[in-house]
Specification:
The chain is an alpha/beta fold. 46% of the residues lie in helices and 12% in strands. The strands form 4 sheets. A 6-stranded parallel beta sheet has the order 4-3-2-5-6-7. A 6-stranded parallel beta sheet has the order 13-10-9-14-15-16. A two-stranded antiparallel ribbon has the order 1-8. The radius of gyration is 23 Å and the shape is globular.
């Protein structure tokens, strides 16, 4: 295998990438190779789907399959080789159907259908050994010796950004929000990658186009979340246990959480959120369930210890999953695109097994002294007090805003974000989103101008809210976003973060500090492009970066 799609990737032996029998995430080489084959097939589906979209004959089922298939290959999502064998076989059947649809639609226009090449003609083996032998053609580094590392790196940037786009779009789709322009954009990007592009400028343009597409996707996801569950509002969330039977829900998918709350209604079972599910408490329709009693634990990388200590079943939705340990292996369930060999998977939203497991387990024996944290400062809440914020800035009460957001992780260097939040001057505000906030969201930041100094905007899925806050402040001050007393400090981990970074670059947002380490798939040349053309700044130390941010604004 070879994989360098996430921040935790191995950098041993002078090679930036996991190239052993098992990756740092726990993905084995067989699963990694099968994922590569699936991605190659999805490029082929994109070739046909892009043309069908142009002909006005899109295939919605195929578009959904493509998004789901891309999502399964994100870091810490699905590790089950059997699932990928099934997806590969299904992709081949869909390709044949799409080919026929494309040819028929083209003939109706009076033209002769073109014969597509590359991934569109790929015939997967029907056996595991055969598929593994074919994986070399689908490797992310295929052709590197000919096209060079810069081209490989930019192709990877487009692919990984596309994976993030598809994941966000899938979250929106399962909540009933979908747009043809999004499906068409994803198909176009796959069609582009299927040509094995080598032009650096074309690759950069495609990366920025994906950033614009992701902005539309995040707007759609925001509409899906608020349309189904209401507008987030400031909410105090209990972080200590309550006596009683219990279920823990981790990941990102609010629909799954809602279904679990419905399945456990009036059954004497308390439901707790974990990881990126914490912001769910701010949504009125979810908060209204009295048995959604609090949040348990922290960010995804701590799940093995936290899941082992939880006295009930766990449901992992979307991402991020790491190898289930023996102590809880028989009481963890997966849902949606998530999977691990031997772990029970929820199908058709049937949570009966989870409920049964919760009733059979002891739950928490006693109620602990209450502790809590605040969530729910999405754009509507923040913008409702925009006048107060603007006045506080004009009076000098608020000197600067720091948005410290993104993914957490286990690799060294992430204490930087704790130090950054803690060392930010008292006359500054800290906005945060993503699970990186667990590094500091229990700390006491006090208030400023009558507002909490720390405002939790939500999940990484809520980046649209953060962007809208910045745009509204820029409008209030009659300036550009880059002229605001605002600094973005981003911790990246996986492909959703890559999509968000592309969105920021596409919107012209500069001086984004990125860490804790920079993507391994970007060569020194490509990093220089990000630094010189887009103003991306690698992090240094918290104190130095705080000082530089304040000095830049003062200048």
């Amino acid at each position: 295998m070879f994989c360098f799609q996430c921040e935790q990737t191995s950098r041993a032996d002078g090679v930036a990438g996991c190239h052993s029998a098992k990756g740092v995430c726990g993905k084995d080489e067989t699963t990694a190779d099968l994922q590569d084959v699936l991605i190659y097939q999805l490029k082929g589906l994109g070739q046909y789907s892009a043309r069908l979209h142009k002909l006005g004959q899109p295939d919605r089922a195929t578009d959904s399959f493509i998004m789901y298939g891309l999502f399964t290959t994100l870091t810490n999502v699905n590790f089950n080789r059997a699932v990928f064998m099934e997806l590969i076989a299904e992709a081949a059947r869909i390709r044949d159907r799409l080919r026929d649809a494309y040819e028929a639609a083209t003939v109706k226009t009076g033209k002769v259908p073109g014969q597509l090449s590359g991934p569109a003609r790929f015939e997967p083996s029907g056996t595991l050994p055969g598929l593994l032998a074919q994986a070399i053609v689908a490797s992310v580094r295929a052709g590197a010796e000919v096209v060079g590392e810069d081209v490989v790196g930019l192709r990877a940037l487009v692919l990984y950004g596309l994976k993030g786009v598809a994941a966000y779009a899938h979250h929106a789709e399962v909540l009933g929000q979908a747009k043809d322009e999004i499906y068409a954009g994803i198909a176009h990007a796959l069609d582009f990658l299927a040509t094995d592009p080598v032009d650096i400028n074309a690759l950069l343009e495609e990366a920025l186009a994906l950033g614009h597409l992701n902005y539309a996707v995040m707007e759609t996801l925001d509409a899906a979340n608020t349309g189904n569950f209401g507008t987030p509002a400031p909410t105090s969330v209990r972080t200590t246990p309550v006596a009683g039977k219990a279920i823990l829900v981790s990941g990102h998918d609010l629909r799954d959480l809602h279904n679990i709350l419905e399945a456990t209604r009036d059954k004497g079972i308390n439901v707790y959120t974990h990881g990126e599910m914490l912001p769910a408490h701010g949504y009125p329709k979810l908060h209204a369930y009295p048995h959604l009693v609090g949040n348990y634990g922290g960010a995804w990388q701590n799940q093995q210890a936290e899941f082992a200590a939880f006295p009930g079943p766990i449901v992992m939705t979307s991402n991020c999953l790491i190898e289930p340990q023996a102590s809880y292996r028989n009481r963890i369930f997966t849902a949606g695109p998530v999977g691990w060999p031997g772990i029970r998977h929820i199908k058709n939203d049937d949570y009966a097994q989870v409920v049964q497991a919760a009733l059979a387990m002891p739950g928490f024996a006693e109620t602990a002294p209450e502790k809590s944290i605040l969530v729910g400062f999405a754009r509507d809440t923040v913008l409702s007090v925009a006048g107060t914020v603007v006045d506080a800035v004009k009076s000098g009460a608020i000197k600067h805003f720091f948005l410290i957001g993104g993914c957490d992780g286990a690799a060294p260097g992430r204490n930087y974000y704790t130090d950054f939040a803690d060392h930010a001057p008292q006359d500054t505000m800290v906005l945060t989103l993503g699970c990186g906030k667990y590094r500091f969201n229990t700390h006491d930041f006090g208030t400023i101008g009558g507002l909490p100094r720390l405002l939790d905007i939500g999940q990484c899925n809520d980046t649209y809210s953060a962007i809208q806050i910045a745009l509204a402040l820029a409008n209030a001050f009659e300036c550009g976003v880059n002229d605001l007393p605002l600094s973005l400090v981003v911790s990246w981990f996986e492909q959703k973060a890559a999509a968000v970074l592309l969105t920021l670059l596409a919107l012209g947002v500069r001086n984004v500090r990125l860490g804790p380490s920079l993507p391994a798939f970007l060569t020194p040349t490509l990093l220089n492009v990000l630094v010189e053309k887009f103003g991306v700044l690698p992090i240094t130390t918290a104190d130095a970066d705080i000082a530089a941010s304040l000095n830049r604004q003062a200048a």
